[in-house]
UniProtKB/TrEMBL annotation:
Family, as annotated: Belongs to the glycosyltransferase 2 family.
Pathway: Cell wall biogenesis; cell wall polysaccharide biosynthesis
Gene Ontology molecular function, alphabetical: glycosyltransferase activity
Name of the featured protein: Glycosyltransferase
Length: 424
């Protein structure tokens, strides 16, 4: 597990606590739970977590922390049912829901034959539930056959959106960074994100959306501009520099906005997202907050289905009943709300970070040190895309060399021409 996250020096204040004093992930407007129910289904979900290659890929440090808890539940099943056809089917196809259900039925039979094993694995599953940082989620309505939500489908949906009204948008500025040089899914996700941001209970004249594209050229400008209030391009080469990209958006389009929302391009938000989070500042009197405790990282099928439901069907929420994916706990990234004053005080995100990982935790650490930071318990929905490399070729994390918490923006930040504080 990440050293910063394990030590928890960030002093992020939860808004409610669970039975043991830890944060309880209960959303005020919806709830996501792992694939619970009968014990056999719970245990089988831990088998899936040990087999599915998407689990270590979604968050390597979360996997390293959680793996031993998964295996404490799953390995006894492998030892007893490893030669069973249902188990072998799931090993060969870890995302096959029918294979998962077949194994759950065999596990139920095993528990009926061996109640002592059932009792032991129930206790281990309880321990795992309280300790793992990636759990498994499958809604009761999950099924194959969703309509493909590709760029062309999103473009057709965008054509039917109303024209944005004139307005200063002085309540909220949303900044969304994007880099998709090979059409790996992020531009599709961004378009869904922007469509959801246009369908909000907050009056359209009260907020603005800025998209900043990091690329050698303005590759997706024609797709983005119709859905955003501001489009910026920063000429970026090599590994994605999310920090510089976000900083440029804030610095050059802030205007008179009273609050900032820094939002990843792969998040599909509900209709009340902006109003709810903007109101939280007045309700709680803090300087910054994470809106979420859990993030549901969807599989490809669920991503298509939920985009169609939210953007095509204009559902007010993102319906989780038809979703399948990995439920990540205490994610420090994806979205941060804060005041422009605090953003300026800490000098924005640290522009020395390149490639995957670290910049969000670094920012959260500095923000919570300089101001009051709160964590709420919404469930975020993350759309599928091809995963980026998470480590260098030698196995080292991309940003292990960056001293955490040392950036202050003293040399400036968000320069459109070049990254600040480096030799670029």
């Amino acid at each position: 597990m990440c050293e910063l996250r394990a030590a928890n020096p960030m002093r992020i204040q939860p808004t409610r606590s669970g039975r043991d004093g830890t944060f309880a992930a209960v959303s005020p407007y919806r709830r996501a739970e792992p694939a619970t129910g009968d014990l056999a289904t719970r245990v089988t979900s831990y088998v899936v977590l040990t087999l599915d290659p998407a689990v270590p890929d979604v968050a390597a440090d979360y996997w390293m922390h959680s793996e031993r808890f998964y295996r404490a539940v799953a390995d006894p099943i492998g030892a007893r049912l490893g030669g069973d056809l249902a188990y072998r089917r799931l090993v060969a196809h870890p995302t096959d829901v029918e294979a998962e259900r077949a194994l759950a039925a065999r596990v139920a039979d095993l528990f009926a034959e061996d109640p002592a094993l059932a009792e032991e694995l129930a206790a281990r599953a309880d321990v795992a539930d309280d300790n793992v940082y990636i759990n498994y989620f499958r809604g009761p309505d999950y099924a194959l056959g969703a309509r493909t939500a590709d760029v062309e489908r999103l473009t057709s949906l965008a054509a039917g959106t109303p024209v944005r009204p004139d307005g200063r948008g002085d309540e909220v500025l949303v900044v969304v960074p994007i880099s998709d040089r090979d059409g790996a899914g992020r531009i599709r996700n961004l378009m869904a994100c922007l469509l959801a941001l246009r369908d909000q209970t907050m009056p359209a004249s009260d907020y603005r959306v800025t998209v900043v594209e990091f690329d050698e050229k303005p590759r997706w400008r024609d797709r983005i501009e119709p859905l955003a209030d501001h489009y910026l391009h920063v000429t970026g080469h090599g590994l994605f520099n999310k920090s510089w990209t976000v900083n440029a958006g804030v610095r050059h389009t802030l205007g008179a906005a009273r609050t900032l929302c820094l939002l990843d391009a792969d998040i599909l938000v509900d209709r009340d997202f902006l109003r709810r989070n903007h109101a939280r500042f007045a309700e709680h009197g803090h300087d910054a907050h994470l809106p979420h405790t859990e993030m549901l990282s969807l599989d490809a099928q669920s991503s298509d289905r939920l985009i169609e439901d939210r953007c095509g069907g204009r559902r007010p929420e993102v319906p989780l009943a038809g979703a399948r994916g990995l439920l990540l706990r205490d994610v420090p990234g994806a979205c941060l709300w804060l005041t422009p004053e605090l953003f300026a005080e800490v000098g924005g995100l640290d522009e020395r970070y390149r490639g995957w990982g670290g910049e969000d935790e670094d920012m959260l650490y500095r923000v919570a040190t300089a101001g009051t930071a709160v964590q709420f318990d919404d469930v975020f929905v993350h759309l599928a895309h091809r995963r980026p490399a998470m480590r260098r070729e030698d196995g080292a994390p991309f940003n292990a060399h960056v001293p955490v918490g040392t950036w202050n923006g003293a040399q400036g930040y968000g320069d459109l021409e070049r990254v600040t504080g480096t030799d670029d």
